[in-house]
Amino acid sequence: MTVDPAIPGQQKPTPLPWNQLIIVLLIQFAEPVTGCVIYPFVNQFVRELDVTQGDEKAVGYYAGLIESMFFFSEFLTVLAWGRASDKCGRRVILLFGPLGLAIATLGFGLANKFWLLIVFRFAQGVFNGNIGVSKTVMAEITDTTNRGQVFSLMPAMWGLAVAIAPTMGGLLSHPAEQYPGIFGSIKLFQMRPYFLPCAAAAMVAFSCYIYAFIGLKETSLLINNRAPQDYGAAHTLATAADVEEQAFAEAAEANSLTPPPFLSFFNPMLRLVLVNYGLLVFADMACFALLPLMYSTPIRYGGLGLSPHNIGMIMGLEGLYNIFIQVFVAGRLIRRFGPRTMQIVGSLTLVYIMAFYPVLSYVAHQKGGVDAIVYALSEWLLFCGYSTCISIATCHMYVVDSASGPAALGTTNGIAQMLATGVRTFAPWIASSLFSISLEHRLAGGYLVYLVLLVPCLVQVKYNLLLPARLQNHH
Fold first, then answer.
1. Is the whole-model pTM more than 0.90?
2. What domains lie within the chain, and their CATH numbers?
3. Rounded to whole angstroms, what are the CA distances from 374 to 85, 119, 235, 271, 381?
């Protein structure tokens, strides 16, 4: 009997090998921690470097460029990491990530020139280029009965990072001023006011590296062509030992095949999935890039005028909500309604968010400040934004489903990740630049940025409807 993951109750989900799964999730966790820690203070960092020469409306250009460098370098390297993992194995490729991220993040915090910020942000993206490999491992250790649950945990890692990283970025920036009794006499923190939050994020990444170095096992038989290893599942779910051993044996055997030629990956289903994924990533990243920019911009220019401390606290609080949704709700919703329905819901939510930005700006301007109502509306905006992470999980499921076979998973995920990072390279810069242009020239009252970005959000809904309602393959 064929198992359909979109139909609940057809087959009991296969137990998960939590030991290895937790390690892979921690590697994924290191990326958004090091990537998102800068968001509460990056606009202020640009102002203090004086590259804008006091032009408040130009901050968005430079901040968007910094944010885009991360994804540009990831775009350049992600496919190479995926192909390398198909040939050299998953473990060695995955270990490069958190170690390199730790080093690059430390450098970012020590930078005192704009070009150094660009260099270290670029380096972060290079070492995050292997994120697609972690998705390959997750696909290899799951099947269609539990893949929705596992892939919904990926946005949960993002949510946890968004709860922690911006909070660190807001609370630990300018420590000599915020906590003079503790850090006021330390010259390093006086001269490098953003080193402490970056150092804290780097320590998280390095800890993930140590844990992965000790416990991560190889899933590819190209490197380990012996019997399947013990992936730790028997120690956490002893009653499921036989099922998990068989699942890992099948994954290892499938990966012993030689990866197919590159052009053979682009089947019609994958092309459709990539269009949907690209549109989703663009809309989601544009919303995410606008958030700290709009929140930090003075009210007279169409923002909320919040400090890095307040921005970090707001984003951290909503990150906790996202964790709850992804861990306890997302998997059930995907199994209950199917991946396409949840994809459509996420796309419609992005349409709503983009339309809500000018409403929030207008209310703050009318009130002349940020009161309880404006704070509540800003929280509601974030609440809606993190709800879209479910559609990210369903996109990953469609990517895996569109692979031509298990031996192609590494490169297929690499292609999807390359597309995503390519889009993320330009999305923050486009959104930030449109924000600055709209304010500078008062286009549509300063709200033109939101009207323009509504278009890809609406187009995305159209392409969601072309996706199959149920997953087709079962590798």
1. no
2. 18-222 (1.20.1250.20), 263-474 (1.20.1250.20)
3. 48, 37, 50, 42, 11
